[in-house]
Amino acid sequence: DTLEARQFFKSWSGKVFQHKPKSILVISAHWDTEFPSVNTVLHNSTIHDFNGFPDPMYKLKYEAPGAIALAKRVRELLMGGGIKRVDEDTERGLDHGAWVPLMLMYPDADIPVCQLSVQSSQTGTYHYSMGKALAPLKEEGVLIIGSGSATHNLRKLDFSITNGSAVPWALEFDHWLRDSLLQGRYGDVNEWEEKAPNAKMAHPWPEHFYPLHVAMGAAGDDAKAEQIHTSWELGTLSYSSYSFSSSL
């Protein structure tokens, strides 16, 4: 209840994005596969893919309807965009990269949800290209959510920092990302490992960054980025969040 990010997500449908989508596509950092995969299920189960938390966490449920038609459309678009193999998972529900924010954003769980996996063995440019292939979805009533983290190095969490401040290396990366996005320097974001300060410190592994690239690509080359939230937890974990709007 004390996290600023929680209040941001809870305000989503009232203040941030007031149009109720027909369906939701979530690109989650917590589904990492060799080939792109979509989940094709009638009803989403709740995957508690984390350890060491209080028992009530494992009792939370978010059982939104599946979005099989959307999953098929995502597969069609990705393959049409040049990806030769896109798998369908007929059993997987929603991991916590999807259901945790959605539980706060759309608590009624009445909007069909489909997940798309990331490929950590690939690059930012690869995921941006995936997003470009998915661009038609934004005209089809689909809300595309990239769920990861602007910075994500759990080994560097500082439990002594409880006032919402950030350590210098994390803040520098976060500001670089903000400026790059707001100035439309998407090419730099695609090449973040070479262009960003403290890149490997901010993301020792890339899976929490790649959902951003998919969302960024899906908005189109002319998309305008807007920072819609920023807050910090434990000094190094940034909740910076962005929306992308196409001029078309």
Task: Give a verbal description of the structure.
This protein is an alpha/beta fold and 248 residues long. It has ten helices and nine strands. It has a three-stranded parallel beta sheet, sandwiched between helices. Helix 5 (124-133) runs parallel beside helix 10 (210-219). The mean pLDDT is 95. Residues 6-244 form the Extradiol ring-cleavage dioxygenase class III enzyme subunit B domain.
Nearest-integer average pLDDT: 95
The strand count comes to 9
Largest sheet, spatial ordering of strands: 4-1-5
Indicate the proportion of strand residues: 15-25%
What is the number of helical segments per DSSP (H or I, 4+ residues)? 10
Percent in helix: 25-40%
Runs in which pLDDT lies below 50 for 5 or more consecutive residues are: none
Return the structural class.
alpha/beta
Note the run of SSEs as H and E: HHEEHEHEHEHHHHHEEEE
Distance between the termini: 38 Å
Main sheet characteristics: 3 strands, parallel
Rg from alpha-carbon coordinates: 17 Å
Basic shape: globular
